[in-house]
Write a structure and sequence with these properties.
The protein is an alpha/beta fold. About 45% of the residues lie in helices and about 10% in strands.
């Protein structure tokens, strides 16, 4: 294709005229399932070349080359005939492909990818035009395939402005930073239990590839990741993303990581490295909390994921996890108990306080990156506040966070020292005794001192209010319990 940069715009311009497409989220989902089939077709050509016994799981009539390709002879389906084929043959066939435990991963992903997918377009002529634009991609050409991998990143970025779909995308600067700081090693297996579009998986592979290129151990590269994603749309994006990055056996599963008793996990379920940005701000049903010990059964999704991470991190393993401020300052019973487990059984060595607009416009809730390992209990924890780069008041879609904005913390990382700025702590070390006994498990240290009036989105405001109210109620309950104990003790 001569103009990759105009690829998304061309598709958008066509789909804008289709009555079935309602907004950005549906437009991107429509592009995504078509892209998946195009990318999968290119992969199958490679697999057939490498293995003459390879047999496609997709019936012949439903393979991209047999229904989507337009040889310009006038025989290609279009209009009502194309719509009828897509709605009544293609989708029912792909949704019901025979898949069981013995089906190879690279074939099973077709059925799981289409399990909840939808065709939104209602105009068969416009659908034909969209298919033709996508089919122009020459994924057999290395340069073009690589270039399209970059274009795909721009499609993922568009999720940030596609309503609630933005929750599945973590800025690439952040995933790359976390993967670099965790320092992958050959032979390790990394996991993300809410992997969204696969950002952490890709950043991990990118870092690992540097080592593989010097050792030539390609198998260790392809088998080094494990992902789970609950929602269909980001799962489809993730699988396509991994196929585009030459991962032919993507061990990513369409499932819910919170629906298994954490006490049932064994060493076989553990991983050397966990990189995650767990969903936060949501609350889970009571039956989900039943999968956790009573003292850890929080109603906050991010808290539950942190418990899963702690149970699934291998001995000597390393983790980097993004969590909202509410976890740091929260003093309700579940949060305190989760923090007791984290500090008592794991080494929480570094907490990076992130600027508030990193995830803008999806959320303005301030987040933090917790780095910890399973090498013994915490003895001391470093806190570092990453300030907005010079010339930025906040990040946005047009001015996103870049890896270079994380340079100050990367320079500080290997030679950690205490820093103050304008009389406020920017980087400071706390002993575990200070964090537990003096501060009562309040990890809200080295925060942002320059108070400015901040206008939050209504849902963000409600969430912050609820977190602060829960924290205050827990503090009141604790003080009342102490007073009651003193009064009870004095009456005897």
């Amino acid at each position: 294709m001569s103009n990759l940069s105009g690829f998304v715009k061309r598709l958008r311009d066509i789909m804008r005229n289709d009555a079935g497409i309602n907004g950005d989220a549906q437009r991107i989902e429509q592009i995504t399932w078509l892209l998946f089939l195009k990318v999968y077709d290119a992969k199958e050509q490679d697999w057939m070349w490498d293995d003459e016994d390879y047999t496609s799981i997709i019936p012949k009539a439903c393979r991209w080359e047999n229904w989507a390709k337009d040889d310009k002879s006038g025989a290609a389906m279009t209009g009502d005939k194309l719509l009828d084929f897509v709605n009544n043959t293609l989708f029912p066939t792909l949704k019901s492909l025979p898949v069981d435990a013995s089906t190879p991963i690279k074939q099973a992903i077709v059925q799981t990818t289409f399990a909840d997918a939808n065709n939104y377009m209602k105009d068969g002529v416009l659908l034909r035009q969209v298919i033709n634009v996508i089919d122009e991609l020459d994924l057999s050409d290395y340069e073009e395939s690589h270039a399209f991998g970059e274009i795909y990143e721009s499609i993922l970025k568009e999720l940030q402005s596609a309503g609630s779909a933005g929750e599945f995308y973590t800025p690439r600067a952040v995933t790359d930073f976390m993967a670099q700081m965790i320092r992958p090693r050959i032979g390790e297996k990394m996991a993300d239990f809410a992997c969204g579009t696969g950002g952490f998986l890709i950043s991990w592979l990118k870092e690992l590839k540097k080592l593989v290129e010097t050792t030539g151990d390609e198998e260790q590269y392809t088998s080094s990741i494990y992902g789970i994603e609950k929602k269909q749309f980001p799962y489809m994006l993730c699988i396509t993303n991994l196929l585009l990055h030459d991962l032919d056996l993507p061990q990513v599963y369409h499932d819910n990581s919170l629906l298994r008793d954490v006490l049932d996990y064994t060493t076989d379920d553990q991983f050397n490295v966990i990189l995650m940005n767990p969903p936060y701000g949501g609350s889970e049903k009571a039956d989900v909390k039943n999968h956790f010990p009573a003292d850890l059964a929080s109603s906050e999704t991010a808290d539950l994921f942190l418990s899963v991470i702690m149970y699934r991190l291998a001995e000597d393993g390393r983790a980097a996890v993004i969590l909202p401020d509410g976890f740091l300052f929260g003093t309700d019973n579940a949060k305190i108990n989760i923090k007791k487990k984290l500090l008592g059984e794991f080494n929480l060595h570094t907490v990076i306080r992130m600027p508030g607009s990193v995830f803008s416009p999806y959320t303005s809730i301030t987040t933090n990156i917790l780095f910890f390992d399973r090498t013994g209990p915490t003895k001391e924890t470093w806190f570092y506040r990453l300030d907005m780069p010079e010339g930025y008041k906040h990040f946005s879609k047009t001015k996103p966070m870049k890896l270079e904005h994380l340079a100050p913390v990367m320079e500080w990382w290997d030679n950690k020292c205490e820093l103050t700025e304008d009389g406020f702590d920017k980087a400071k070390k706390f002993t575990v005794q200070q964090l537990t006994e003096d501060l009562g498990y309040n990890l809200d240290q080295c925060g942002y001192p320059h108070e400015e009036e901040e206008i939050l989105a209504p849902l963000d405001l409600i969430q912050r209010y609820e977190e602060e109210r829960a924290s205050l109620n827990a503090e009141i309950d604790r003080v009342l319990a102490e007073i009651t104990a003193i009064l009870g003790g004095g009456a005897q």
